[in-house]
Write a structure and sequence with these properties.
Order of helices and strands: HEHEHEHHEEHEHEHEHEEHHEHHH
Strand content: 15-25%
Strand order of the largest sheet: 7-6-8-5-9-11
Shape: globular
Number of strands: 11
CATH class: Alpha Beta
Largest sheet: 6 strands, mixed
CATH architecture: 3-Layer(aba) Sandwich
Length: 330
């Protein structure tokens, strides 16, 4: 009996020692835990822990608990976080080209995006690598739409609105200003309060975030016009990558790509579900007429003359435009 107890005690001590020496891998995200990205990150955390037999223990900080994107990147640089989920705006700090993918009404359909992105992805990945970060997986957020407190159908309607934009999206704020809009810098964590108080009354975002953060309650109008795709990615520091167990490091990275990819396969369906849910709770979706859509295309494309080179990468824009011209001409 004593010998059995000694063995059990020894096994317990070994387990405790192993747990205490597990590498803690922390991931920061601005998305709510109950969002598709939140659930995907929790799945990644569980699978990495299982794959490594507990040698890597993943913690996920959802809902901007670890700060806004700029704060999380700073924490990743100094090792407080090992990975961060970033929007195209956040990624633009590591890739001058990436924000250009979301230029208003440049890429207009999912088919166009699916044609363009695989061709430019290696270049984007390499640009990010040069800053000392690795792409764990691309994680699209869907498509960007305008939401507002009152019905909005043409660009002149938007020019009279107060357009909420995160202070860390200064490139986007500058683009809005150059296009003649009135951006109001408001952090994501304070956006709902700013909309309720009237500090801002409109914004550009993906439906899943509008639903997840409950912003649509203060802005119950959505213009059914895809302004642009919203690609994102999970980045990890090179230092964190090198600390992963060498015998399964590549396998872990492949699995991260697969998990992120599985979300991308479902995102459009999830986006439509988010819109339908918001409609059930009072959102009105406005369909632009052909004439109204033509006005948006003309005016936003005219804005390229002032935003290219200042906000968006002109050389990368020409590359994408050439691919689009070829694709649309088929």
């Amino acid at each position: 009996m004593k010998r059995s107890r000694s063995i059990l005690l020894g096994l317990l001590l070994v387990a405790i020692a192993a747990a205490s020496h597990a590498q803690v891998f922390r991931i920061g995200s601005a998305a709510p835990e109950n969002s598709p990205w939140g659930r995907t990150l929790n799945r990644l955390a569980a699978e990495w822990t299982e794959m490594s037999n507990g040698r890597v223990r993943v913690q996920v900080f959802h809902n901007s608990i670890a700060g806004i994107e700029a704060d999380m990147v700073r924490k990743m640089r100094i090792g407080q976080l090992q990975a961060v989920v970033l929007s195209s705006t956040g990624l633009s700090n590591f890739s001058e080209s990436l924000l250009t993918l979301s230029m208003p009404l440049l890429i207009r359909t999912q088919e166009e995006f699916d044609h363009i992105f695989p061709q430019v992805e290696p270049e984007l990945r390499e640009q990010i690598r040069e800053f000392g970060f690795r792409v764990m997986g691309w994680s699209t957020a869907g498509w960007l739409y305008f939401f507002s407190d009152e019905e909005m159908r043409v660009p002149d309607d938007l020019r009279t609105a107060k357009l909420a934009a995160s202070p860390e999206e200064m490139d986007l704020v500058r683009a809005y200003q150059l296009m003649g809009f009135q951006p109001v810098p408001v952090p994501y964590t304070e956006r709902l309060a700013s909309l309720v108080s009237g500090l801002a009354n409109s914004y550009l975002t993906v439906p899943i975030l509008a639903a997840g953060f409950q912003w649509f309650g203060a802005t119950p109008n959505m213009l059914n016009l895809r302004v642009g795709p919203a690609p994102g990615a999970i980045l990890m520091s090179e230092r964190a990558y090198q600390r992963l167990p060498a015998d399964i490091r590549d396998e872990m990275m492949v699995r991260a790509e697969e998990i992120a990819g599985s979300l991308n396969d479902d995102i459009l369906e999830l986006e439509q579900t988010a819109i339908e849910t918001m409609v059930d709770f009072g959102l009105t979706v406005h369909e632009p007429t052909e004439a109204e859509e033509a006005v948006w295309i003309t005016e936003l494309q005219d804005s390229y003359d002032v935003t290219l080179g200042l906000v968006f990468d002109e050389e990368f824009f020409r590359t994408i435009q050439g691919m689009l011209d070829e694709f649309r001409g088929r």
